[in-house]
Amino acid sequence: MVDVDSFIEEKKDEIAAAVGDGHAIIALSGGVDSSTAAALAYESIGDQLTPVYVDTGLMRKGETDEIRETFDYMDSLRIVEAQDRFLDALEGETDPEEKRHIIGEQFIREFETVAKEVDADYLVQGTIYPDRIESEGTIKSHHNVGGLPDVIDFEGIVEPMRDLYKDEVREVARELDLEEIISERMPFPGPGLAVRIIGEVTEEKLEVAREANHVVEEELEEYEPWQALAAVIGKATGVKGDNRVHGWVVAVRSVESRDGMTARAQEIDWQTLQRIQSRITGENDNVARVLYDVTHKPPATIEYE
User: Which residues belong to any copy of the GMPS ATP-PPase domain (predicted)?
Assistant: First the structure.
């Protein structure tokens, strides 16, 4: 386990040395990784940092409002409304890796635009050790690792937490006095809800995925999962009222893990599962059925794409 106090001081010095007299932007998503990196960088270089939150349209329910409230003490916080640009870029794409690369490319382009406006030279990211291992091992690409474009208009990328596991990141977050809603938050993928949608990303699928994920996180909070999620995986027939429908199939997944490298599907009681399916199908007329995923990692990954 990392010595948190020493780590914080060491990384503050490292960030300051890397940026020097320049200016940096931080890719802030609201997850514990990027939020901790942002807090660390802000303590290190203060006004030399511009935190950038990109609303991709692929975020959790209420995410943007939470970001505004949590990080309002950072005067230079920039919120970029980029929903249409991301959805346009993803239109028609069904390949999982291509979707990740498209999102990674668009992320960097959004950051570059802000960087030019504020004359920033460096990009700070919340990359952690499992991100690098999975990308290097081709398990998946990350928009902050394997999904980076070949040409980046920054002098350098700073990744202060690249050697930490998730539980160590949480330790650092607590030491930095980040709110519990951030320090204890479940992991959320960089590409957002796009990797919880099989096939093409559409506004309809996004709305189903967003509301279903909200239900799952609420209902499974007492189980304290490493990660709990809902994915839109296809369509199937169902019955709504007296009508036969062809609606979306939502898969629910809840796992236990230490670092995300391996994971075990949680045993959820039947009553809870029935409550989840009742809410998801009842709150969205376009959902025909709900499944529970009992697959461990390996052989499955935690996310669906």
Answer: 2-185
Instruction: Give which of 69, 68, 275, 83 is closest to 193, Cα–Cα.
Output: 83
Same domain for 250 and 114 = no
Q: Which residues fall in the annotated binding site for ATP?
A: 29-35
Same domain, 48 and 174: yes
139 pLDDT tier (thresholds 50, 70, 90): very low
Decide if 252 contacts 292 (C-beta within 8 A): yes
CA distance 301 to 265: 11
Q: Structure tokens of 159?
A: 């990744």
Q: What is the pLDDT of residues 209-268, one digit of tens each?
A: 999 999 999 999 999 999 999 999 999 999 988 889 999 999 999 999 988 889 999 999
Question: For position 269, which CATH number holds?
Answer: 3.30.300.10
Residue list, annotated binding site: 29-35
What the block records as the tokens of 105 is 């490319």
Provide the domain limits for residue 281.
Answer: 202-292
Contacts by residues 231-237 (CB-CB < 8 Å, ≥ 24 positions apart): 231/196, 231/197, 231/198, 231/303, 231/304, 232/196, 232/197, 232/198, 232/205, 232/208, 233/198, 233/291, 233/304, 234/198, 234/199, 235/288, 236/288, 236/289, 237/288
Question: How many structural domains are present in the chain?
Answer: 2
